[in-house]
Automatic annotation (TrEMBL):
InterPro entries, A to Z: AcTrfase_PglD-like, Hexapep, Hexapep_transf_CS, Trans_hexapeptide_repeat, Trimer_LpxA-like_sf
Similarity comment: Belongs to the transferase hexapeptide repeat family.
Lineage: Bacteria, Pseudomonadati, Pseudomonadota, Alphaproteobacteria, Rhodobacterales
Source organism: Cereibacter johrii
SUPFAM superfamilies, alphabetized: Trimeric LpxA-like enzymes
Protein name, as recorded: Sugar O-acyltransferase (Sialic acid O-acetyltransferase NeuD family)
Keywords from the named record: Acyltransferase, Repeat, Transferase
Length: 213
């Protein structure tokens, strides 16, 4: 049986963690990356090419794995700049992940190993859910967000688009985290988080802004 063709975007730790399961289920002809220093190199025998080469893979589907606490807010722009229709992006779940049949998972979203997604969770397009995160019932996660390893999101919580939830964070039921917010590692979120805010600690509080200059 012929494997579907998949082209990952971003030679990062996010790809390294998922690569073996991707390779087991797909033919991977190339990895696309925006760092010119990586062009012409190889990872596990797979050539690394510039993002501009996406058009040459006419039969492939794509998966953007770029995303860290420094780059999460530009994921949406990188994906949009590719100019590819929504249906050209793969929806991937590691074989060990447990995803409810009542959950709704968007295009371009990757569910890593050991993740649990329970009933009626709604995960938008191009979301990364890292290892052993738990998303309880009726959770909503907006497009392009990244949910770190071991995060627990309690029932009915809403995470906006373009957010970064650091590893080990816990989010109380019914909480809303606004678009573009960053929740620090291990934070315990018991109050709503404003769009674009950076919060950390237990309980999570906004970090003071650094003075200009």
């Amino acid at each position: 049986m012929t494997k579907p063709i998949l082209v990952p975007i971003g030679l990062s730790g996010n790809l390294v963690e998922l690569f073996e399961s991707l390779e087991a289920a797909h033919e991977i002809p190339a990895i696309l990356d925006d760092d010119p220093r990586r062009a012409g190199t190889r990872f596990e025998g797979v050539p690394v090419l510039p993002l501009a080469r996406a058009a040459r893979f006419g039969e492939a589907r794509f998966l953007c794995l770029i995303g860290s606490e420094r780059s999460f807010r530009v994921r949406g722009r990188i994906i949009a700049d590719l100019g590819l229709p929504r249906e050209r992006f793969a929806r991937v779940a590691h074989p060990s992940a447990r995803v409810s049949r009542m959950a709704d998972i968007g295009c371009g979203t990757a569910i890593y190993h050991g993740v649990t997604v329970t009933s009626n969770a709604r995960i938008g397009d191009h979301v990364l859910v890292m290892p052993h995160a738990i998303l309880h019932h009726d959770v909503t996660i907006g497009a392009h967000s990244l949910v770190g390893a071991g995060v627990i999101v309690a029932g009915g919580a809403r995470i906006g688009a373009d957010c970064y939830i650091g590893s080990g964070a816990a989010i109380r039921n019914g909480i809303t985290i606004g678009d573009g917010a960053l929740v620090g590692m291990g934070a315990v979120v018991v109050r709503d988080v404003a769009p674009g805010a950076v919060v950390a600690g237990n309980p999570a509080r906004p970090l003071p802004r650094r003075p200009a200059g």
